[in-house]
Structures are given as structure tokens and as C-alpha cells.
Amino acid sequence: MSADSSAVRPLPFVLVDDDGGFSVNPEACAVLERVKSRLVVVAVAGLYRTGKSFLLNMLVKGVSGSRQEQPGFAVGGTVNACTKGIWMWGEPIPLDEDTSVLFLDTEGLGSVDREQTHDTRIFALALLLASNFVYNSRGVIDGNAIEDLSLVVNLSKHIQTSSTSKDAAGNADRLHEFFPSFMWVVRDFTLQLLDNGKPISSKQYLENALKPTGGYSDDAVEKDQIRALLSDFFRHRDCVTLVRPVDDEQKLRNLPKVPYEELRDEFRASFEGLQKRLFGKAKPKSMFGKPLNGAMFVNLAGSYVEALNSGKAPVISSAWSRVVQAQCHDALEDAVERYKSELHARVRRYLSPKQYEEDAGFEANGDKQDDELELVDNGQGSSAMFDEHGNLRSVALRPDLE
């Protein structure tokens, strides 16, 4: 966290141009690349104009420990979506010594000026980046709410787990291995949590809503398909219901300015329960068992965005190979610098400063640096250091130096 947390503001992370192309914001990348700790990535999605940015601002304040008014994610009152692309909180917030949480706000689904293909691409990208995915909706989880998530039907077309034809055939069956935990937050909930007159948990309420109806009409079959895919893609799922935060209509219209203490007790209790479920045992964003830090997360996002812009489905295994290769390259460069520094320090002990500089070859044109790097990569360039999977090859000295 920065010294003055009130100065932190949201930043655009994934930008969308007029033609629907994506790009990763360099300013956001610079912030994230400084983060050496593991990242818990919480992405909030939902239909536009359902208050997801307000919910996200509350989560940010809750984790940061500040309930004071501060610049947050845009909250508007028009029929147009406020958020375009994907935005991030200005910097990750520490959860403990080696873990920080990054909040992502996604463009609202179903906006009047966007097509479903765009919605699906944003939705897919958020799923690929998140470790915790929060879906925000209003009212109840009924057939209409299920239908609002119809874009899950096309997820397997927009995401591939592997580039090999063998794995691609069973692509949909493996997506759950890479998808985040799924939290459905139902806002302005007015029902009692009962099943046949007996109290149930909000999680059981979700499970009941995902059970197939067994209807035979086209509409029933379509919704049951969505239910089945949600159940299959998100094996780790939960639900929290939130009542209306205030009863006063005037306060409701200016909700972002209402102090936390003036929100309904029932709302605050449920919201604090949501925080505990999200962050009580928060797992960092991981790929193939490896937790990601800021630089790795930036490389992953860049790989996914590049694939989407090419018109192809992002390939998870290929994106991870790119992350591994970048990390290996950075580690190798760091090792070379450490080796040179240690070698120079040891040699300096036995030579006069003048003799040392002459022997070490401190010429202005820096030719000796190039020679040292050539010694490491065998004169073949950095591409020769890695195999096709991004793994570091064995490093050999040039024959004439052995």
C-alpha cells in the first residue's frame, strides 16, 4: 500500500478501442510489476446498472480497513454502462506478509451499446484472470437470472485449455480446472431462505436454483443447459444474499455517499459475512500449482489479450508457457548480474583498482558485456535458452572457453 491510501484511485487495466480490440494499460502494468507478493485476484461481473461497482468499492474499503469516503470505481445513474473494459484498484492491498488482493471491475454485461460477443470476451477474460469471481445480480435466482448467464454456453468456444487437438476435443471437460471460485451475490433480496418451510443457507439456495427442471420446452431445455454448465464449470461455488442497503429512497439514489454506519444492520451483517467467505481462506491466483506475483500476472494478461485480438481463443497452456519463459529469462538475467557482481568483488580483492579495471575490460563501448552474455547463451540468442514449453535448457560454455 502507498503511504497515503486515500490517494489511490482505480486504473484502467484492459482497455477497449472503438473497434473492440483490447490492450493492457502500461501504467497499470508498471504498478503490478512492482508487486512481489502472491496475488489474490477478485473480479466482479454482472449486468450493467446492477450496482457491482458499488459492491466492489465496499469490498475495497473493507479490506483496506478504511470506511472513509475516497475515490472509487465509477458508480453512475444512467442507462449506459459506466465501466468500459476491465479496471483495477490502483494497487493491490496487502492481506498478509506475502499475499495481496487485486480488485478488478468488469464492464457490465448486456449494455445497450455492446454485442453479446463482446460481453462473452470480457466475461471469459475476467474468468481467466481471477482467482475469485463474484457475479452480482438483483432480486432472486430464477429462470430469468439463469438466462442472464447464457453466455457460459459459448465459453468453451472462447477459451482453450491446450493447443493440441487431443486436448481440445475434451476442452469443455477441463475448463473447471482453471476457472476461479464462483460467488453469486444476490442484491436487494426480499425472500425468506426456506425450502418446504425449512430454513436453508444461501449456498443451498443457489444449489436448488441450479438443479435441472426437466422441462421439455425449448426454453426449459436451454435454461437447464445453462444450469448444467454453471455447475460443471464452477465446482467451488457459493452464494450470499443482501437485502436492500437502505429503506429511504433519497439515500438510495445517493448510496455511495451514505456512511457505512447508516446502512441497514441486516445488510451490514450479510456483507461482512461475504467478506469472510471471500478472504477468510483466500487462495492466490495460481497456474499449474504455481502462485502468481504481479509480473507473472501482467504477462498472463498480455498473452490472453494478444490471443483475443488475433481472433483466436486464448490457450491456457500456451499463456502459461509465455509466463514461464518470461520468468526464466528474468531469472537468468538476474543470475548473470549476480555472478558478475560477485566475480568482480572477489577479483577486486587481489588487484589494484587500476589493474582490475584494465583486466576486467571496462571499455566505453561495453563490448565485454556482450562477450559475457554470449558466454551464457552459447552465442545463439535468448531463444536458444528455452525449449518449446518455455523450460530453461541446460546452459553450456562456448567450446573455446571450456
UniProtKB/TrEMBL annotation:
<dbReference type="InterPro" id="IPR027417">
    <property type="entry name" value="P-loop_NTPase"/>
</dbReference>
<protein>
    <recommendedName>
        <fullName>GB1/RHD3-type G domain-containing protein</fullName>
    </recommendedName>
</protein>
<feature type="region of interest" description="Disordered">
    <location>
        <begin position="360"/>
        <end position="390"/>
    </location>
</feature>
<dbReference type="InterPro" id="IPR036543">
    <property type="entry name" value="Guanylate-bd_C_sf"/>
</dbReference>
<dbReference type="Pfam" id="PF02841">
    <property type="entry name" value="GBP_C"/>
</dbReference>
<keyword id="KW-0378">Hydrolase</keyword>
<dbReference type="GO" id="GO:0003924">
    <property type="term" value="F:GTPase activity"/>
</dbReference>
<dbReference type="GO" id="GO:0005525">
    <property type="term" value="F:GTP binding"/>
</dbReference>
<feature type="domain" description="GB1/RHD3-type G">
    <location>
        <begin position="36"/>
        <end position="283"/>
    </location>
</feature>
<keyword id="KW-0342">GTP-binding</keyword>
<keyword id="KW-0547">Nucleotide-binding</keyword>
<dbReference type="Pfam" id="PF02263">
    <property type="entry name" value="GBP"/>
</dbReference>
<dbReference type="InterPro" id="IPR030386">
    <property type="entry name" value="G_GB1_RHD3_dom"/>
</dbReference>
<dbReference type="InterPro" id="IPR015894">
    <property type="entry name" value="Guanylate-bd_N"/>
</dbReference>
<dbReference type="InterPro" id="IPR003191">
    <property type="entry name" value="Guanylate-bd/ATL_C"/>
</dbReference>
<comment type="similarity">
    <text>Belongs to the TRAFAC class dynamin-like GTPase superfamily. GB1/RHD3 GTPase family.</text>
</comment>
